[in-house]
Write a structure and sequence with these properties.
By secondary structure, the chain is α+β, with helices and mostly antiparallel strands. The chain folds into two domains: 133 residues, Homing endonucleases (Endonuclease I-creI, Roll), CATH 3.10.28.10; 116 residues, Endonuclease I-creI (Roll), CATH 3.10.28. The protein is 48% helix and 22% strand. It contains twelve helices and eight strands. Strands 1-2-4-3 form a four-stranded antiparallel beta sheet. A hairpin with a 3-residue loop joins strand 1 and strand 2. The longest helix has 15 residues. The protein is globular.
Length: 265
């Protein structure tokens, strides 16, 4: 694998990849300015790690918005942000993208539904806006699919979407013994982690159900450390990842004699 240059994606793969990235680390916001009018904002926030700035800069060229680096003074941690806050960009780029490749997490689905409601309503009052915003996530249970139904009807863009989601939510780790572990987790959406595990034919792996201590939000996670399972992840990801997760993957493969000999670059 080339350590410096991820593969150039086709337009359809790039679109689906971006939706996966938004599903993982994005936020679609509808804010107000002094109770007078609404403002629309899309943010993808990533750690300032190798390739992340380049990836988000490339995204901004294709889809609009701006990419910047910011420093969190409290933690001294640097981040890379892609931000869209132009209504015209939303109308011509972001909304068409998310209609063509619908988000797959309940969080972004509900955020996008709320944005569409506000964006398409010409007579929405501020009172109605605040009421709708408060109820934005009330339908989460209603729109949550059964995991078997979801797996049976995976969208055609799932492969590229998953790469973008892994770029945001996947975790590649090196063990002391030289082994490689992949894990991925998601709040609320068991069906999604179930589908990802099954996509790699890893049905034997257990999905762990945890709850965050403070919020009590459910978290679902699985991890794989076997060489066969790892190869499945790599074979899928090596030509699709674009940011820091690609860098992690490339370094690991190139440092592992077995994988570097077997994985085709």
């Amino acid at each position: 694998m080339n350590l410096k240059t991820p593969a150039t994606l086709l337009a359809s793969d790039r679109d689906a990849f971006l939706v996966g990235l938004i599903d993982g680390d994005g936020s679609i916001q509808v804010n107000h300015w002094r109770h007078k009018f609404l403002q629309y904002r899309l943010v993808v926030k990533l750690l300032d790690q190798p390739l992340n700035f380049e990836m988000l800069s490339s995204i901004s060229k294709f889809y609009g918005g701006k990419t910047t680096k910011v420093l969190d003074k409290k933690t001294a941690q640097s981040y890379v942000l892609w931000v869209v806050n132009d209504k015209t960009v939303f109308k011509n780029s972001i909304i068409p993208l998310l209609l063509k490749y619908p988000p797959l997490t309940t969080r972004i689905k509900l955020q996008f539904n709320f944005l569409l409601k506000c964006f398409n309503s010409h007579d929405l009052t501020m009172e109605e806006y605040f009421q709708s915003r408060t109820m934005k996530y009330d339908n989460r249970a209603v729109i949550t699919p059964n995991e078997l139904d979801f797996v049976a009807s995976l969208p055609c863009y799932f492969k590229s979407w998953l790469a973008g989601f892994i770029e945001a939510e996947g975790c590649f780790s090196n063990r002391k013994a030289g082994n490689f572990t992949f894990s991925i987790a998601q709040n609320y959406d068991y069906y999604l982690i179930y589908a990802i595990r099954n996509y790699y034919n890893l049905q034997h792996l257990k999905i762990f159900h945890k709850r965050e201590k403070v919020s009590n939000i459910p978290l679902y996670e699985f991890s794989v450390g076997s060489i066969n399972g790892v190869e499945k992840i790599i074979n899928h990801c090596q030509f699709l990842l674009q940011g820091y997760k690609y860098s992690q993957l490339a370094i690991f493969v190139n440092n592992n004699k077995y994988l570097s000999a077997k994985i085709t670059s």
